[in-house]
Amino acid sequence: MARPKTEEEIALMRENAILVSRTLAEVGKAVAPGVSTAKLNKVAEDFIRDNGAIPSFLGFEGFPAAICASVNDVVVHGFPSDYILKEGDIVTADIGTLYKGYNGDSAYTFPVGEVDAKTRKLLDVTKASLYKGIEAAVAGNRTGDIGYAVQSYVESFGFSVVRELEGHGIGREMHEAPGVPNYGRRGHGPRLIDGMTICIEPMVNAGSRSVYLDRNGWAVHTADRSNSAHYELTVVVRNGKAELLSTFDFIEKDGKINF
Ligand code: MG
Ligand code: MG
What we know:
Elements: H1 7-30, H2 37-50, E1 54-55, E2 67-71, E3 74-76, E4 90-99, E5 102-111, H3 117-135, H4 143-155, E6 160-161, E7 167-169, E8 176-180, E9 197-200, E10 203-205, E11 211-213, E12 220-222, E13 228-230, E14 233-236, E15 243-244, H5 249-252
Antiparallel strand pairs: 1-4, 2-4, 3-12, 4-5, 6-10, 7-8, 7-9, 9-14, 10-13, 11-12, 14-15
Helix pairs in contact: 1-2, 3-4
């Protein structure tokens, strides 16, 4: 079971989470038709290093890049590449940083130019499901309460939740206990304790929930080639209401970046 963090640790993790959030926003500014996912990786890696942190995904179990860049039917763990984004694509940037001994980890699915209505809905529902999960991330609840909140919301729109991957505790390690599934039953799973730091990260498919592993051993694709979205935030479990550490405000507020 994950050890709840001290307020000193949480303060360091908050700094790191803000850096990840700002990095996501830098990537978001670069997303456009005609841009390669390798370019997004470079934007992120430069920004992370310029701010005194380390891109923690690079070299993690052999992962070859600073960020995961997952396009369209790729659910997670896409390799940045010379693939050129085109109008109507979606691309998820999943970013991890190591800073002062602690990990940060957040993800956002960006539309590339205009996307079709169903895809726009997929993005909106997936992001909203993350906030539903966060509402359930309060002390005394269990991980199954988070999973139930995400799953029931997503499925009410006819989309499906990927079950092979899940959220997680975070701290000195990128992935700590408990696992935080995006499906489940209320009242089941490990109990949430005040001061636990966890990443909640729904992965949602427009079609069936079935996925397969790319032959590169990393990228996870939807089996039916439907689009998949993924949003991730780091939160502190608190009594009454979770506290956000990372935020999408740098991406979304007033359409501009606020530092
Ligand atoms: Mg992540
Ligand atoms: Mg994560």
